[in-house]
Amino acid sequence: MSEAFVHCRGVTKRFGETTAVNDVSLEVERGQTLALLGPSGCGKTTLLRLISGLERPDAGTISIDGVQVSGDGKYVAPEKRRVGMVFQDYALFPHLSVRDNIAFGMSGGGRNERVDRLLAGTGLTGLGSRMPQELSGGQQQRVALARSLAAGPRVMLLDEPFSNLDPELRHRLREAGRAILESLQLTAIFVSHDQEEALSLSGRLAIMMNGRIEQVGAPSQVYNHPATRAVASFLGDANFLPGEFRDGRLQFELGSVTAKSDLSGAVEVMVRPERLRLDGDTGIPVEVVHSDYFGHDQLATVRLPSGDVVKVRLQPGRNFEIGSRTSLSLAGDVVLFPA
Ligand code: ATP
Prior knowledge:
- The protein is of the alpha+beta class.
- Helices cover 23% and strands 37% of the residues.
């Protein structure tokens, strides 16, 4: 029987009246990177702190590599769990050089060589003798990563590690972080507010809301087949329209199409903006009421004959004046939820 490397079973953590983590069960396989994404205050940080041992659960158990570390009266101290943590405010020791910061938690021989390897692995070769205040934010963040890797963790927990950085640096560090985790085959859980980051960086994605895990799966699975309306509207852009579904056929304002669902009768139809097309040969008449330009693409808001508005992701190079009239058609799958 293969057991998950990190395994939370029915974990609950309360702070007074607040249930920060509510009956969470989560499995992360060895070597896997799981992204934990959810709105502010949904319990992400608390869940990481429970796994690291900085918090004790009120109910449930946590095991790492088959050994129970929390729950049922068991409690293994954080320093014995071999869990590495990198947080947004990477507190480096200001009076120690980069090299000494990294070597701080190391024991045993070959320290210099191990520090060199970590410097190289995090792209910091040549900076070992600098002091933390002589580094950029991104470099400091890499020192923090190297320092937590130096202790030989079995699991890495990263809490919004890149959120203080500008987008360009963030992107580079994200790639570097992924390469490091992959090369060391470390099991990692990282918390993010940033949807693109979570979708692109992780092998698996868990969506957390109100202290609960709403859905876990491959990023594309969660995006394309959201389990609940809440997940659909949280992750990416989503349009919701009323419809009727019977015997495999959906009727709604955009037409009559086949769809898959166990539901019957009145439904709510979720359509992603990139599954809609403007200005095709067929379609229903719409008016463009708004447009958001993002550089790499553009999101138009159009009004349907019913008065409902939907967002449409435009093809590169397409442009529609506000107030212009065109046609809208469906160009992909929809997801149905109970009305
Ligand atoms: P964010 O994305 O904003 O960092 P989060 O998803 O990480 O949020 P947590 O920090 O885990 O959320 O907080 C979950 C809930 O628990 C929040 O309502 C928070 O106010 C509460 N909470 C967290 N830590 C404590 C604490 N030590 N004492 C009291 N309440 C707490």
